[in-house]
Design goal:
- 36% of the residues lie in helices and 13% in strands.
- The chain is an alpha/beta fold and 333 residues long.
- Helix 1 runs parallel beside helix 9 and helix 3 packs across helix 4.
């Protein structure tokens, strides 16, 4: 449960279905097949944004869920400064109320729906008080075009003010075994306020699956190339985390990806990861995480081992991190 919103234990992030981290353009029919097969296997929570593509991912998702639209929960996001007609990405943010209204109208068309089940502010716009943003979303709720709302990568004060103005259903932040910053304050505040928590990048942009090793180098255009946690000087050190996860995968007769996701699922029933993929085998593997369980003693043991591992490097490039208001645990803890 995300607040009062019921979703599947695992969601599906569709961000890369128009372009992968490696800058490959996936085959659209294959992406539609993944979306529909996920539904057949019990996934009812799909996460998109106008910024993904921009716009194209919403079109893919809209086509994918069309046969069963009323049986799933669609989440999307506004907030980046994107031209509403062309989809051109412009510098900065835009959460002006009139822009939100028009942005949602575009989402509804691309998603082939009459309402957004969960609408997030993708990043907090410092030029627009959060109360004004809440007011714009409330107007959309009154029109039946939005059912629930949430925030992504916001600060604590912003979340409190937003929730006071219009009850927030969910918060979306990066969170995984690789980056545990939200544990310091964001997750406790969500628990206090009864807000659900949706971890994006729950597999550490592929790192926690074991697909990356100390010799991995990334192509131009792949954001991981400019994340210092994956820099050549830091990767060998950070592989200790992967080795830990692999040892638990062997112990549980499972896979590293499933262990990483099961760890999130074991934390709270209101924490709902949204692993993304463009490969059918990965999607099918990820949803198997719901079958991996830890005893109390195992969970304590795993957490103790995690606490002994230091991750070197920042989670995002400075230019991207500047848009995040999340208070974080130190990277080297």
């Amino acid at each position: 449960m995300l607040g009062s919103l019921e979703v599947s234990s695992l969601g599906l992030g569709v961000q890369n279905m128009s372009r992968t981290y490696q800058t490959i353009i996936p085959h659209r029919p294959e992406m539609i097949d993944i979306i529909r097969t996920a539904f057949d296997r019990g996934v009812t929570f799909y996460d998109a944004a106008e910024a993904y593509g921009p716009h194209e991912v919403e079109r893919i998702l809209g086509e994918g869920v069309a046969p069963f639209r009323d049986e799933v929960v669609i989440a999307s996001k506004f907030g980046w400064n994107i031209d509403l007609e062309t989809g051109e990405r412009r510098p900065g943010l835009n959460s002006r109320p009139e822009h939100i209204q028009k942005a949602v109208e575009g989402m509804l068309k691309r998603l082939r729906t009459d309402r957004i089940d969960l609408l997030y502010q993708h990043r907090v716009d410092p030029a627009v008080p959060i109360e004004e943003v809440a007011g714009a979303v409330k107007d959309l709720m009154d029109q039946g075009k939005v059912l629930h709302w949430g925030l992504s990568e916001m600060g604590l004060d912003t979340l409190r003010r937003a929730h006071a103005a219009l009850p927030v259903t969910a918060v979306q932040n990066e969170y995984s075994m690789l980056w545990r910053g939200p544990e310091e304050a964001v997750i406790p505040l969500c628990e206090e306020l009864g807000i659900g928590f949706v971890p994006w990048s729950p597999l550490g942009v592929g790192f926690l699956t074991g697909a990356i090793d100390e010799k991995t180098r990334f192509a131009e255009g792949d954001i991981r190339k400019i994340e210092t946690r994956f820099a050549p000087e830091n990767l060998p050190h950070n592989m200790a985390l992967v080795q830990l996860i692999k040892s638990w995968a062997e112990r549980k007769n499972s896979s590293p990806a499933r262990i990483a996701l099961a760890w999130l699922l074991a934390r709270e029933p209101w924490i709902v990861p949204i692993p993304g993929t463009t490969q059918m085998s990965h999607m099918l593997g990820n949803i198997g995480a719901v079958d991996v369980t830890f005893s109390d003693s195992e969970f304590q043991e795993l957490n103790a081992a995690l606490a002994d591992i230091t991750i070197k490097g920042e989670r995002l490039p400075p230019a991207v991190l500047a848009f995040s208001g999340v208070e974080a645990l130190p990277q080297e803890r």
